[in-house]
Specification:
Shape of chain A: globular
Number of strands of chain B: 9
Strand content of chain B: 15-25%
Largest sheet of chain B: 5 strands, parallel
CATH class of the largest domain in chain B: Alpha Beta
Order of helices and strands of chain B: EEEHEEHEHHHEHEE
Helix content of chain A: over 70%
Radius of gyration of chain A: 18 Å
Structural class of chain B: alpha/beta
CATH topology of the largest domain in chain B: Rossmann fold
Largest sheet of chain A: none
Order of helices and strands of chain A: HHHHHHHHHHH
Radius of gyration of chain B: 17 Å
CATH architecture of the largest domain in chain B: 3-Layer(aba) Sandwich
Oligomer: heterodimer
Distance between the termini of chain B: 39 Å
CATH superfamily of the largest domain in chain B: P-loop containing nucleotide triphosphate hydrolases
Distance between the termini of chain A: 36 Å
Number of domains of chain B: 2
Strand content of chain A: under 5%
Largest interface: A-B, 29 and 35 residues
Structural class of chain A: mainly alpha
Shape of chain B: globular
Number of strands of chain A: 0
Strand order of the largest sheet of chain B: 6-7-8-3-9
Chain lengths: 228, 217
């Protein structure tokens, strides 16, 4: 029997569909994770194995590595759908486009940002971070990585159908994510220095709420322009 | 409320008002005005690159016309896009299917975009009606072009039916039997008062002559 679905149930089902697609094409997510691990492992080789120094740079370095790894999968956020024509279905959906776009962003975060946050915990251990610092790092990533998917979505929509979209996307988006990096990595550094981390988390939270509202709207407009 | 199988089940009509389209600096068509009543088929014919696909995309709102407007039951389709989207099925020039989903999952997720959750049984019935019962649980990427086209077309059999069908070259890659079945399917949709806009190089045989509105681009 068919019945009209509640808006949020339909969004949930869209997220579920995207996740089952991710599960069937695991190498995309695995590539992101491996890239993250490899970049994080390159730093000790480059700057030397001094434990004090590594402990000091670990938060910022893990944040940068997570940021770069998230960039890898961002350009496919809409590109696959654009290529196989299913993006048209999304644009002709009865679900308002910003909400449909938000569903895709949530699925993207679950399959990249969330995994990266957990992977960061494992990688942080090899840099001799204290348990509490690791927890702060994890929480800052959990709050910060959704911003990669949200703000990155705008870039993914803007660069849709352009040649070399991946590089262009990074050039567009990385500068916009600088505040996220500053407050995210800053939270862990503040904790290591014995200061309060609340301020950093408030600012990350504010950025998150702000982009949760505006990013889907901006992405929806960019998508409409991109398919014309 | 009339039963789903009675004639004139659908009531809305479509109006094309002074449509013009310019793509890449080239004017494809201008001053296109047509009125399409329930039960009529808009056949868009023309050479390659004459703007057939663009016209179809304008009709469903994916593309904005450079001037003029499209009206659905007297109201611009932009006025309440979600309401309008709930009444249409658009099949583009490539079958909009995900290679990593099965045929049934693809039909389900297309319905999902219209906020519907057909049961697995309903989806399988639609595929069986389209003559593809054995493909329901095959990954789409393993199928041929013609099979993909037929899976996309199987959405048309899903209940409840939508009034407005937009089909971009639906006869492409179809074999003779599937071609005949599609023509039958179009005719029965028109009999219910449905509206169909399609682009095709082939002539479409209809029971009644006045059901056909032709646009030569």
């Amino acid at each position: 029997m068919t019945g009209a679905l509640h808006l949020f149930t339909a969004m949930g089902a869209l997220v579920q569909r995207d996740l089952s697609l991710v599960l069937r094409r695991k190498n995309d997510s695995l590539a992101t994770l491996f890239f993250f691990a490899v970049v994080a492992s390159l730093f000790p080789l480059g700057v030397g194995p001094e434990p004090k120094l590594l402990q000091l740079i670990a938060p910022g370095m893990l944040w940068i590595a997570a940021l770069l790894a998230a960039m890898l999968s961002l350009n496919r956020l809409f590109a696959d759908d654009f290529q196989d024509g299913t993006l048209d279905l999304l644009l002709l959906s009865t679900i308002p486009l910003p909400l449909a776009v938000l569903a895709k962003m949530i699925a993207h975060w679950l399959s990249s940002g969330l995994l990266l946050s957990f992977a960061a915990v494992v990688l942080a251990l090899q840099f001799n971070l204290t348990g509490e610092s690791v927890l702060i790092l994890f929480l800052s990533l959990i709050l910060g990585t959704p911003l990669f998917s949200l703000i990155g979505g705008i870039g993914a929509a803007l660069t849709l159908g352009t040649r070399g979209g991946g590089v262009l996307l990074s050039l567009l988006i990385l500068p916009l994510l600088i505040p996220v990096l500053i407050f995210g990595a800053g939270a862990v550094e503040a904790h290591q220095a014995g200061q309060s981390v609340a301020g950093h988390f408030y600012l990350l939270g504010a950025l998150f709420v702000l982009s949760l509202f505006f990013a889907p709207l901006a992405t929806a407009v960019s998508l409409r322009i991109a398919v014309e | 409320m009339p039963a789903t199988n009675s004639p004139n089940f659908f009531k809305q009509s479509l109006l094309l008002e002074n449509l013009a389209c310019t793509r890449g600096g080239v004017a494809l068509f201008a001053n296109l005005t047509r009125s399409i009543a329930p039960g009529q088929l808009l056949h868009i014919a023309g050479k390659n690159g004459s703007g057939k696909s663009s016209l179809l995309r304008i009709l469903c709102g994916l593309l904005s016309p450079s001037s003029g407007q499209v009206k659905w039951s007297g109201q611009s389709i932009r006025a309440d896009a979600e309401q309008f989207n709930a009444q249409l099925i658009y099949l583009g020039h490539i079958p909009a299917l995900k290679g990593d989903l099965t045929a049934a999952e693809n039909i389900y997720s297309a319905a999902l975009c219209r906020q519907e959750t057909p049961s697995m049984h309903a989806v399988e019935t639609a595929l069986a009606t389209a003559g593809l019962p054995s493909l329901a649980h095959k990954m789409v990427r393993t199928l041929s072009q013609g099979q993909k086209q037929r899976i996309a077309l199987a959405q048309l059999h899903l209940k409840p039916s939508k009034q407005f069908w937009l089909l971009d070259e639906p006869f492409n890659a179809l074999d003779a039997d599937a071609n005949y079945a599609l023509q039958k399917c179009l005719q029965s949709h028109l009999a219910l008062g449905g509206i169909i806009a399609l682009s095709s190089h082939q002539e479409i045989l209809l029971n009644t002559n006045n059901a056909l509105v032709r646009v030569e681009l």
